[in-house]
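Shipment paperwork, digital attachment
Item: protein structure file
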Amino acid sequence: MSRIALIQTRTPDTQAGALAELEPLVRQAAAGGARLIATPEGSNLLQRDREALQGVLAAPEDDAVVQGLRALARELGVEILIGSALVRRPDGLAANRAVFLRTDGEIAATYDKIHMFDVDLPTGESARESQVYTPGEAAVVVDAEVGRLGLTICYDVRFPGLFRALARAGAEIIAVPAAFTRPTGEAHWEILLRARAIECGCYVIAPAQGGRHADGRGTWGRSLVVGPWGEVVARLDHDDPGVLFADIDPAAAGKARAAIPALKNERAFAGPSL
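Attachment content:
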């Protein structure tokens, strides 16, 4: 068994404020024995105003949270998945990027969110991520100490093809760091996470943003760890900042896939006639 920890935050609209909130939670997670610590989407800042966001975005090498968490990984001797940092790319455009850190603080893998959250909700809320971020183009799996880890971000959870591609590449754990809206979180958050775990026969770990943020948005919280059989291994039942610990056994993924060999049984097929 390996111990992991999920960090639930209420990220403010500045990198300095975000690091001040994250650091004590990461230290608490490491003190509790976690070997992998995962943070939510937008761990470095959340800012809905596009002009204000563009004014504070930094390249990863200049971002206070990315660099602060690199230093903490080195100091504490733990692996850290920055669920995502909102960063500036070399071409000047923005990316919503997951960053996986080794115990020496080095960046071992990055993943840019593929699926953009472009929606109009029944509540009147709307989002157009594609107007701010450049979508990624490649799925990413990385070997962590606790097992083979697939990377996704938030809205990706609604696209099972990505998860199956990660599972076919050997992912035993798939991360879904998120900043889910409250209406969609209440309706779909746990259902989607458990479905992806069952379909892929793997752990799904989902560190979340929670509560009312400085930029006015509300996020659902309820960070969750789901096992390969679809069972809830650990959860937070609130939207406040905190640490969620879970002990996982990556071998359980192989057992689940042997019991229900859906990945092996999957076949290509022609689409229906239009």
